[in-house]
């Protein structure tokens, strides 16, 4: 398997998802700020940031396919790739205020949410594997 080709394919799929999410965020920000018409710069930045985040999320998912790496290495690397890009793009797009404190809060929140989701999926798959092994053992 070519990790590069797979990353490009997943990145392209992530582009559409990222744009859809970013446009939703732009609409919410516009509604919250009471904007009656969209500012082209706000819309353009949200569009670009969402597309880039979609590409990064999609391409970074290839990390999970590198079987010679431990799950710990895959998890840390995946989280760091995403967390390195997200706060910067969020500030540039206007999703969070610019500054060190908002970036640190964004990064910390991202890491916390990532940890919660990872832990939830870990226990889900642990239970799934346990149930599967129990069913196989019954036969």
From TrEMBL:
Keyword Transmembrane attributed: yes
Keyword Glycoprotein: no
InterPro entries reported for this sequence: DUF3021
Pfam family, one: DUF3021
Regions crossing the membrane: 12-31, 46-64, 76-95, 101-123
Keywords: Membrane, Transmembrane, Transmembrane helix
Source domain of life: Bacteria
Protein name: DUF3021 domain-containing protein
Protein source organism: Gehongia tenuis
